[in-house]
Design goal:
Layout: H1 3-7, H2 12-21, H3 25-34, H4 36-43, H5 46-57, H6 75-85, E1 93-94, E2 97-98, H7 113-120, H8 124-134, E3 145-147, E4 155-160, E5 178-182, E6 189-190, E7 195-196, E8 199-200, H9 203-214, H10 235-250, E9 264-270, E10 273-280, E11 285-287, H11 289-292, H12 301-312, H13 316-327
Antiparallel strand pairs: 1-2, 3-4, 4-5, 5-6, 7-8, 9-10, 10-11
Helix pairs in contact: 2-4, 3-4, 5-6, 8-9, 10-12
C-alpha cells in the first residue's frame, strides 16, 4: 500500500470514502442500500459524486460540464444517478413491442405520447440509435454520431444548440437545438430535408432524420470524453445489442462515402464508452489506432468482442466490395 493510500485511511469516514472511490457506480448503489454507514458518507455528497465521475471519465472538475448536452442543476449527484438508471431493465412499451425486445431499455425521462408515436414506426436498430443519442453515446472527436443501417451508407449526424436546456426528469425526452446529417461529412443537410444530390433517403435513414426534425433530441454527451475505467457494469448488456446491430448492418452495408487515411474505417458508438473505430482490411477486421487515443490504460471488452465476432462472421462480401472499389 502506498503512502497516499495510507493517508487516505486516517479515520473511519475517510476509509469508507476511500473504498467508495474504488468501486464502480453500480457497486456503490448496492453498498449504499445495504449499509447505512456507507450511505451516510458518500451518497448525499456532491464532492463524492464529482470525484467518482471525474476520476473514471477524466472529465473537467466542474458541473455542469460542457461535455454534457444538458445543464444538471442537481450537480454531479443528479448526473451520477441518471447514469445508473440507464441500464438493462424492463423498458418502455411501444405499442405491441418494447423498445428493444432482445434487451429491454428504460428511457429516462420517458417519451411523451407524441414522441412514442414517432418511435413506433422505427425499427429496433433505429430506436437503439435514438436511445443511444439520449442515453450515453459518446461522439467522435469532431462531435459526430454515426448510424450504420442495413442496405445503405453510414450516416453522420451532428447536433448544435445555442443554449443548453436544463435536465428534467419528466415531460418527455430532452429536446432542443438542431440536427444536421451527411453521407460524406462534406455536404451537410438540415433534418427538414430527406433528399441529397442523386437520391432520397428511405427506410431507417429517413425515419431517424424525420424523428430528429420533429424531436431534436439533446445528446446526453455532446463532446468527446476520455475513459479511465468502466463506470457501470450494467451498460454491458446494452452494448451487446449495439454490437449485434452493427454486425447485422455490415452484412448489407455499402462502403462509406467518407474514407479515412489508412483503410476503410467504421465507427461504432457504445453507451458511456468512447467510440470504437474499426478497420475493414482485405482479410480481417482490426481496431483502428485512433481508438486507443480515447481509451487510456487498457482494453475494453466490448471492443475486443465485436472485432472477434466480425472476424468469425461471414463478411467476405464487404471485403470484396471494398477491394473492388479500390481497384476500379
Amino acid at each position: 500500500m502506498s503512502n497516499s493510500d495510507v493517508a487516505a485511511m486516517t479515520s473511519l469516514p475517510d476509509c469508507i470514502a476511500y473504498v467508495y472511490r474504488c468501486l464502480r457506480l453500480d457497486d456503490v448503489v448496492r453498498t449504499s442500500a445495504a449499509c447505512r454507514c456507507f450511505a451516510s458518507v458518500g451518497w448525499q455528497s456532491e464532492d463524492f459524486w464529482e470525484e467518482i465521475l471525474c476520476c473514471r471519465w477524466l472529465l473537467p472538475a466542474k458541473c455542469p460540464s460542457e461535455v454534457f448536452g444538458c445543464i444538471f442543476e442537481g450537480g454531479w449527484q443528479q448526473l451520477g444517478r441518471l447514469a445508473w438508471r440507464i441500464s438493462s431493465r424492463p423498458g418502455q412499451h411501444l405499442g405491441g413491442r418494447v423498445t428493444a425486445p432482445e434487451c429491454p431499455w428504460s428511457w429516462w425521462p420517458q417519451p411523451d405520447e407524441r414522441q412514442l408515436d414517432l418511435l413506433r414506426v422505427a425499427s429496433n436498430a433505429a430506436q437503439h440509435f435514438l436511445f443511444g443519442l439520449a442515453h450515453g453515446y459518446v461522439p467522435t472527436a469532431d462531435g459526430v454520431f454515426i448510424y450504420h443501417g442495413k442496405g445503405g451508407w453510414p450516416m453522420h449526424f451532428r447536433h448544435e444548440v445555442v443554449s443548453r436546456p436544463v435536465f428534467t426528469e419528466s415531460g418527455g425526452l430532452r429536446i432542443g437545438g438542431t440536427w444536421t446529417w451527411s453521407l460524406d461529412r462534406v455536404s451537410w443537410h438540415k433534418t427538414s430535408a430527406v433528399t441529397f444530390d442523386g437520391g432520397e433517403l428511405n427506410g431507417d435513414f429517413r425515419v431517424i432524420v424525420l424523428f430528429l426534425e420533429a424531436c431534436p433530441l439533446v445528446p446526453l454527451i455532446c463532446k468527446s470524453a476520455l475513459l479511465r475505467e468502466r463506470l457501470i457494469r450494467g451498460h454491458t448488456a446494452l452494448n451487446r445489442v449495439v454490437s449485434a446491430d452493427f454486425q447485422d448492418a455490415v452484412q448489407t452495408m455499402q462502403p462509406p462515402f467518407w474514407f479515412r487515411c489508412g483503410g476503410h474505417v467504421f465507427t461504432v458508438h457504445f453507451h458511456f464508452l468512447p467510440p470504437l473505430h474499426v478497420t475493414c482490411m482485405p482479410h480481417a477486421w482490426a481496431i483502428h489506432p485512433d481508438t486507443s487515443a480515447t481509451v487510456p490504460g487498457g482494453s475494453v471488452p466490448e471492443y475486443a468482442e465485436l472485432v472477434s465476432d466480425l472476424n468469425k462472421g461471414n463478411f467476405s462480401n464487404l471485403w470484396r466490395f471494398l477491394l473492388e472499389s479500390e481497384t476500379s
